[in-house]
Design goal:
By secondary structure, the protein is an alpha/beta fold. The chain contains 14 helices and twelve strands. Strands 1-2-3-4-7-8-9-12 form an eight-stranded parallel beta barrel, surrounded by four helices. Helix 1 links the parallel strand 1 and strand 2. Helix 4 packs parallel to helix 9.
Amino acid sequence: MEKTWRWFGPKDPITLDMLRQIGVEGIVTALHHVPNGEVWTLEEITKMRDLIESHELRWSVVESLPVSEEIKFAGPRRDELIEKYKESLSNLGKAGVKTICYNFMPVLDWARTDLEYPNGDGTSNLYFNRAEFAYFDIHILKRTGAEKDYDAYTLDRVDELRKTMTPEGEHRLVDNIIVKTQGFVNGNISEDDTAPVETFRQLLALYDGIDKEALRANMKYWLEAIMPVCDEYDINMCVHPDDPPLQILGLPRIVTCDEDIKWFLDAVPNRHNGLTFCAGSLSAGAHNDVVDLARKYADRTHFVHLRRCQVMPNGDFKEAPHLGRGRADLVELVRIFEKSLKDRGMERKALPMRVDHAPLMLGDEKMGYNAGYSFHGRMLALGQMDGVMAVIDREIDK
């Protein structure tokens, strides 16, 4: 697989020169300065591509060309926004950028409650505390009927948490759940938002009456509309699984498990409609057999995220080391994807891979990196996965 790295553009403190030095081959990025729903012009795309190529790297994947909320909930501007999306896709195809990672998660992208959960070795990781998330839902967001979405054990934990929760603790939860994990990826809420909770309530209200079947129908409508452009320019669309792969905040989530993946691939059977195989997101759901999913969907996977989670008996989960304890066997996943490429007669670099959500370590926490995107932690993980790929490639070639 091609070794890629998510890079957040010229303002990223991690530079392209740094990435060349650690063995990165391809860049995963987006035009973060373009507002959601606006056209990515050929001029702006070419400028970014040329900048990356001037450092002898390749713009391998767009992550993300955001799908506007109004496309997801089928608002009155849906068709207009789809036409703008198709124009952006066409411009990307003309510029030779042909793998597009996106998500179809309503309102909230990925969710964590703690962005620096301490490990015993002095590093820290992202963490999802189910009770803290439920506290946010019930007592901060005050979503109607929220209590019905949690089991008695979690509600007991929430009651205990309420006894010690402070205003500072509530602010931390708001910041972690709906600000810091969202704003840097063209999210719905920016760090400049003065009333993020109220903004979030308004966004949730847009999905009143939208259930799983309605959201599936809206995704199918959108995919069918863009496939002609993908066919024309040989663009691969690859949806990112919901993170976490659970129903949350009363919102429908439609990329959480085997059934969901099979549904969207069958609903639009075009080969350009594919999957971002995020082992981390999928492994955060105890219901998912991640290795089995990789075997089943390797030939419709256009992009791979190698990371994994450790799920606790109480429903909490944390990001786990790339090699060590965790729910997804990353060594076996590399073997599956590398063998799939060989069996299909494809070059190994035809499938981009990036490591993801690595720990903060060796001073990363002082650098202001975006949540989940440390330098030293990802560099360690990339070195580990590079070694795994080298051994497996030799094994396969025997």
